[in-house]
Design brief:
The complex is a heterodimer of chains A (about 100) and B (about 475). Chain A is mainly beta and about 100 residues long. In chain A, about 5% of the residues lie in helices and about 30% in strands. Chain A is globular. The relative contact order of chain A is 0.24. With about 475 residues, chain B is of the alpha/beta class. In chain B, the strands form six sheets. In chain B, strands 1, 2, 3, 4, 5, 6 and 20 form a seven-stranded mixed β-sheet that branches. A five-stranded parallel β-sheet of chain B has the order 8-16-10-11-12. In chain B, strands 13-14-15 form a three-stranded antiparallel β-sheet, with no helix packed on it. Helices cover about 35% and strands about 20% of the residues of chain B. Chain B has three domains: about 10-120 and about 265-340, FAD/NAD(P)-binding domain (3-Layer(bba) Sandwich), CATH 3.50.50.60; about 125-260, FAD/NAD(P)-binding domain; about 370-440, BFD-like [2Fe-2S]-binding domain (Arc Repressor Mutant, subunit A, Orthogonal Bundle). The chains are: A mainly beta (about 100), B alpha/beta (about 475). At the A-B interface, strand 1, helix 1 and strand 5 of A face strand 8, helix 5 and strand 9 of B.
């Protein structure tokens, strides 16, 4: 869906998506890294379980909700990646306690 | 840049580090006022200058001169005495000018003598069938990824809608080697006639030559269909095709990515939650705050600057930011204000900057069928409420957006109405034969962005606060 520009010379950052290693770049948001990864990163909505991907990428739509380092319902488009970050694609509602 | 506010009170708190917020901060800090700039993103720039201090797209021609115009202002603010906190979410503001800020999962409150809201704009909802499918995004989303991460569309891509941003985005994608298969232009043919009376002001504005050059650049490389009057996205679990109608032609084209855009609207959530009076603007088809000539709102001590005050673009936002800051300086440090350029100078620049806006607003007024959906088209993406659900609620007595919440939960999901509010107001206004002003908007309240209960519970409290809620 998206590819990286040849101008991009930023350092790689290694994150984990549902346990699998994924290479992001320094300064990527979690959502940008997920969309650039080429993986199936569709979440499922809390209401009907419908598949969604980020829509606005600017903190407005909440379609980028994702579990980051064990904390659910984070807005992936507002959180920069960090080395070793554990990301889980959220299926349905946030679980109690995370 | 630090993580938490260094003081518990400031002369001026500016919310939002886009063009208006940066200009207001620079002006206030230079006059010696203690100034705090709060911004939700990782770096300053807002949307138009997003990632200006960190973008991997370093070849300046690719993003264009309007983008790099922000670099000096960012530099000025960073070298000023102003305190800047990035990744700060402002979730509350009240009439006592107390600002609730969440940084890294911890909340704090600061007091201000003046608050300047520069919360900018968000994309106007574009509720077509299938707009919640994975693979349908806003044009602004694609531009955000392009600026901050150098990401460009790679598979079959369709851009649909209208307005200056759409052409700018297309040009930027092409310059970075991205793919666009088709542009579907939804500008209504009648709008060209309606905009004619404003054409002279537009042709003598800087928008004109830039706009034409960009459209030529894009049209040379991408097939453009104009007069598109119907639009639908379809696919099983993700976008597979886009169907459109234009004149007598109807076509379905395969697509992996659909980028939608029909203009932007003021982001009113924080301003409305404070109780600032807003009115429906029929030319811009959105709510805008009622302001005096200095950007002051109906709530004492709070001003609105930038696109949050009504869409005017980056150039206008910078001037509105300076005007709001100058008014704050006049009130708090009259001696410092005497050294600044007089307000009349700023007003003259403002008049110059808004030239051509009436033309753009009229030409790119989104068509009714793309603002007011029907049938099974989703209106509220969070709670998955359709146009039919809302019309059914109206039929059994729902009178306005706020009451509608009780019927079908519209606007009660995490986005708090940001992506359905305008649609709900116009849909209900049409169904009830009322004006949007009469129908009104959601009653918004803090927290204007979700925070966890644990974070709220951990906010420092006095013995009196605790006693106030303890059962006797």
């Amino acid at each position: 869906m998206f590819k990286r520009s040849d101008q991009d010379e930023r350092q790689p950052v290694h994150i984990f998506v549902d346990g699998a290693a994924v290479e992001a770049r320094e300064g990527d948001t979690v959502s940008a890294a997920l969309l650039a990864s080429g993986r199936d990163v569709r979440r499922a909505t809390a209401v009907s379980g419908a598949p969604r991907l980020p829509y606005c990428m600017m903190g407005v739509c909440f379609d980028c909700l994702v579990t980051i380092d064990g904390v659910g319902n984070r807005q992936g488009c507002l959180v920069p990646v960090a080395g070793g970050m554990q990301i889980e694609i959220q299926k349905g509602k946030r679980e109690i306690g995370r | 840049m630090n993580a938490v506010p260094r003081r518990d009170a400031y002369d001026v708190v500016v919310i939002g580090a886009g063009p208006a917020g940066l200009a207001a901060t620079a002006t206030a800090a230079e006059a010696g006022l203690s100034t705090l700039l709060l911004d939700e993103n990782a770096g300053p720039g807002g949307q138009v200058w997003r990632a200006i201090a960190s973008t991997p797209v370093t070849d300046r021609d690719r993003l264009g001169t309007d983008y790099w115009a922000g670099a000096d202002l960012v530099q000025t603010v960073r070298s000023s005495a102003a305190e800047i906190i990035q990744r700060a979410t402002v979730w509350s503001l009240d009439r006592h000018l107390e600002v609730g800020i969440s940084v890294g999962g911890v909340s704090a409150f600061v007091k201000a003598r003046r608050v300047i809201l520069a919360t900018g704009a968000l994309e106007r909802p574009f509720p077509i069938p299938g707009w919640s499918l994975p693979g349908v995004m806003t044009a602004g989303a694609a531009q955000t990824m392009l600026k901050s991460s150098g990401l460009v569309p790679d598979g079959r891509t369709v851009i649909a809608g209208q307005g200056p941003l759409l052409w700018l985005l297309a040009a930027q994608i092409l310059r970075l080697g991205g793919r666009i298969d088709r542009i579907l232009d939804t500008t209504e043919r009648w709008n060209y006639l309606a905009a004619l009376p404003h054409a002279f002001a537009f042709m003598t504005s800087p928008y004109f030559a830039k706009g034409l050059a960009m459209m030529r650049e894009v049209r040379a490389k991408v097939p453009v269909v104009s007069g598109v009057s119907e639009l639908a996205a379809a696919g099983d679990g993700r976008l597979a095709s886009v169907t459109y109608a234009a004149s007598s032609r109807r076509e379905t084209i395969p697509a992996e990515l659909l980028l939608l855009h029909q203009g932007v609207a003021p982001n009113v959530n924080l301003a409305m939650a404070v109780g600032i009076e807003h009115r429906w603007d029929d030319r811009q088809l959105s709510w805008s705050p009622v302001l005096d000539g200095c950007g002051n709102t109906s709530v004492a001590g709070i001003a609105v600057a930038g696109d949050g005050a009504g869409i005017g673009g980056a150039g206008t936002a910078v001037i509105r930011g300076r005007i709001a800051a100058r008014a704050a300086i006049e009130a708090l440090a009259p001696a410092a204000a005497a050294k600044l350029a007089p307000m009349t100078t700023f007003r003259a620049s403002l008049a110059q900057a808004v030239r051509g806006r009436a033309f753009l607003d009229t030409l790119f007024r989104p068509a009714r069928q793309f603002r007011i959906p029907t049938g099974d088209t989703i209106v509220c993406r969070c709670e998955e409420v359709t146009a039919k659900d809302i019309l059914d609620a109206v039929a059994i007595g729902a009178t306005g957006p706020n009451q509608l919440k009780a019927y079908c939960r519209t606007g009660m999901g995490p986005c708090q109405g940001r992506l359905c509010g305008l649609t709900v107001t116009e849909l209900m206004a049409q169904a009830r034969s009322k004006s949007p002003q009469e129908i009104g908007y959601y009653r918004l309240r803090a927290p204007v962005k979700p925070i966890t209960l644990a974070e709220l519970a951990a906010v420092p409290k006095t013995e009196a606060d605790v006693q106030a809620v303890v059962r006797g």
